[in-house]
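Researcher: Let's walk through a ligand-bound prediction step by step. First, I give you the protein sequence. Second, the SMILES string for zinc ion. Third, you return the three-dimensional complex as structure tokens. Ready?
Model: Ready.
Researcher: Here are steps one and two:
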Amino acid sequence: MRAAVLRNSGDRRLDVVDNLETVDPEPTEVVVQIMATGVCHSDLSILNGTFDHPVPAVLGHEGSGVVVEVGAAVDRVKVGDHVIVAWASPCGWCVNCTARKTPQLCNTMYRDGGMRPRFRLDGVPVHGMNGVGSFSNFTTVRQDSAIVIDDDIPFEVASLVGCGVTTGVGAAINSAKVAPGSSVVVFGCGGVGISAIQGARIAGASTIVAVDLFERKRELALQFGATAACAPEDLDALKAELTGDGFDYAIEVIGLAKTMRAAWDAVHRGGTACVVGAGSPDDHFELSALEIFFNEKTLVGSYYGSSDVRSDFHRLLRLWRAGQLDLEGMISRRSGIDDINEAFDAMVGGEVIRTVISF
Ligand SMILES: NC(=O)c1ccc[n+]([C@@H]2O[C@H](COP(=O)([O-])OP(=O)(O)OC[C@H]3O[C@@H](n4cnc5c(N)ncnc54)[C@H](O)[C@@H]3O)[C@@H](O)[C@H]2O)c1
Ligand SMILES: [Zn+2]
Ligand SMILES: [Zn+2]
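Model: Step three, the predicted complex:
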């Protein structure tokens, strides 16, 4: 089968191959035929070495498709089911899934083989990104990672829910807990940032400022619910004009220490800065020993939108059905995995919000 493979971390391009094989499913695993996959910046960050992942690997973690085979002990998913593949799936029983009520932080899949290589290429084991690997016709995942959805939902729409939309909307609603009538600034207007803007709108924020380097991205942000937009260097003036002393919430959706610090600075005393962006372990920002207590701000990290994929995927699809969450408008279509490297270029060049590749 056809797939896009990362041979070595730091490579410039993915290698499109025709002869990848999937591994057979374990008793609690299922094989999914991927029908659509979004291209997320986290794929690019593994490709360019911003953060580590075992190689060789099939990248892609924002996929939807159809279950074509199930292991002997699978009891929650059946052949023919349409699914969104979750890149972090809750086991339902560990301390994170129960007492702590943070199923997005369930570590079970990292311990019980959920990260084992999903593929083989020329006899060599090949990993799937975060146990998924959706830049491929088929993949094998835990049944916990295959979230069954209604058959009438277009695969392209469903794929976005697999990462960017759940992450961005969830960051606003679940992690930052944006309140009605509040002011929000979102740094970065890619697929995840536009989702955070939509999340802030759904949560009832009255002021939503979008910050991006590209004017085209800022214009698009206004169509998804931003009430104003600016370049990074113009934010201080706009902040003073719109809020006086600062925003109630800032959501960083880029992955750079300097914009994380800018998010912290953008909120008023007592405000909340939420970091979604995934950056390098070598990129740091500083907080002084005075400002932390004095300003009483909250700094909150956001992993997979602090979501429970078992319920939040459905909640987001209900918002989409109700016309409150625009998913089609975010999509730039490409057919076929051959376009994968061009999709990365379009993302970096500020041309698209989200590329979705159909198979
Ligand atoms: N926390 C999570 O669970 C999670 C999940 C998915 C993605 N992410 C991360 O979220 C981030 C965004 O992902 P995406 O797919 O939306 O990326 P993207 O590349 O589509 O969007 C990033 C946007 O930021 C803008 N930008 C870059 N540098 C900027 C700067 N200095 N100032 C202002 N704007 C700038 C770009 O023009 C672009 O529009 C990435 O770091 C990704 O790895 C995190
Ligand atoms: Zn992602
Ligand atoms: Zn768990």
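Researcher: And what stands out?
Model: The first strand starts at residue 3 and ends at 6. The chain has two domains: 3-162+326-358, 167-303.
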